[in-house]
Target: Phosphoglycolate phosphatase-like HAD superfamily hydrolase
Amino acid sequence: MCRQTKEISMRCSRRAVLAAIIVFGLSANTFAQSGPLPSWNDSPVKTSIIDFVHRTTTQGSLDFVVPEQRIAVFDNDGTLWTEQPYYFQLAFAFDQIKTMAPKHPEWKNKQPFKGLIEDDLKSALATGQRELEQVLAVTHAGMTTDEFARSVITWTQTAKHPRFQRPYTALVYQPMLELLSYLRANGFKTFVVSGGGVEFMRPWMEKAYSIPPEQIVGSSGVVKFEVGKEGRPQLIKTAKIEFIDDGSGKPVGINRFIGRKPIFAFGNSDGDLQMLQWTMAGEGPHFAGLVHHTDAEREYAYDRQSRIGKLDKALDEAASKNWAVIDMKKDWTTIFPQTR
Amino acid sequence: MCRQTKEISMRCSRRAVLAAIIVFGLSANTFAQSGPLPSWNDSPVKTSIIDFVHRTTTQGSLDFVVPEQRIAVFDNDGTLWTEQPYYFQLAFAFDQIKTMAPKHPEWKNKQPFKGLIEDDLKSALATGQRELEQVLAVTHAGMTTDEFARSVITWTQTAKHPRFQRPYTALVYQPMLELLSYLRANGFKTFVVSGGGVEFMRPWMEKAYSIPPEQIVGSSGVVKFEVGKEGRPQLIKTAKIEFIDDGSGKPVGINRFIGRKPIFAFGNSDGDLQMLQWTMAGEGPHFAGLVHHTDAEREYAYDRQSRIGKLDKALDEAASKNWAVIDMKKDWTTIFPQTR
Model:
């Protein structure tokens, strides 16, 4: 009998829920799902994530993991934000050429600069690898780290994606923002481990993902310390590549920057395969997931044949090892945040 | 008039304290000093540290710094623990040679191995730089990162310092432990930025300093990812040097690993000079300090002429720029923790 005071009524309803769990065999996780990850449809992937978090964070659970070991790593391009029609760092470089053009009259008749300035991307991209490396060099080197960071910030505030006509930082995935936040709420420390340049990512990621610079691992160029003209110490970015945080470089980068094996990892391409393997090689519980781009309408659809974000070997390994694979079209109710 | 209820008596006493501040010109900081840093004698250095923390963490203060920017960096050898008679990582390498000797009969008649095995350090050290690099190579490379970490842990649990006859990890400085802890209690994030090998430091620093692996920046060798015989992914340490986190490498390492300019830095040698310069180059408030080894009785006394931990240029710069210089003998009541 439930008497009608508020407190008792709450107890009764709790009892009713517990009874339902026993009678219908529902687990506590079923109920938990209605809370976190609101932009995720109920699906085995969502259930497996919530179940993993529940198991690893419940005191007394056989799979309990102490908070300091709850390291979660995420690829960026194609996993946390869009990477089509080409990596956004390349879009930044192309846009920078236009910004810098007035001070470089010699670019007017020289490819690939000419093409980039005239929005003739086809001609620009028709030049060789070496010419494109020049574009990266002039836009990413020969300046202080502070100057470069400022140019990245300006770009994120002004540039717009050609198809979606919104700032690039508004093309982050709402469901992944929810996942990052859900993990942090459960004592996980979230890291980005990306092939992108670390200096390109740090200026905007704290705001976009709530991930601080010291938890961002990426590729890097050699940086030199010098004392400038007015006795002011500064760091100069050079064009020499130092470290490529991609493929087998990802576990190396994780080891170097984080120094612990992650227990949770998400990627979307073959460049993430070794990071996922490394995560799954740990003792104790671990979780690997892939974002599979299946939604040409709301975002893009690509996998085994794609020039950017190729997902082939990792898709096979995910199938054979039972890793979680997100079907973007089916699993996500929303792709991008409503307003940014 | 103070009536004798408890509450009123507390108010009265608070009023008395406030009156004393006004009358005698005491600042709130004077009162704060009796609390933190108990192993520090009252001195201008201690006052300047407490004043800095107070200014940067008090809401409404002109020097207030938001928590995410409160980055504090510390050199390790000679700043957080002893570095004499030679860097402890070298002591580890020498001890490892003895541990590994039974499996290397060829070392019996070959210097510097022979000398190290027979505790004849003089003969061992008389060999050239290249031979000593061999010692580092065989003790630090050709194994997985996990195997190396285990060997470091075993060493910290068994080896003893020749003079103090205690484990090396018991030769950390009690006053610096208090400083790390005081900073963290005030919302600072503490990092180690050391010339020591990052893989050598990470296994024991979390316990010794409460600093997690991901907040430890150091020198590193090239590490390779491979999938081992049983399909198990692993990272293999090679003998190739990748990055030396010393001198002008320190601001480079800080930029690469932390991605923000510190506002608080401590070192003890010329190898820390550029890190201190970089910290002091930041906008807003910043603090640089040096540990000056002046206590031959309780620890060691050395500076300008020392082969290890040479402190010459940085001492001059500290004097000219008014950086804090700790006089170990005068400023610290205790050097090492009582029991570890």
Q: What stands out?
A: The interface with chain A takes residues 68, 71, 145, 189, 191, 198, 202, 206, 212-216, 220, 223-227, 232-235, 248-249, 251-252, 255-260, 274, 277-278, 281 of chain B (CB under 8 Å). The CA atoms of residues 269 and 311 of chain B lie 4 Å apart.
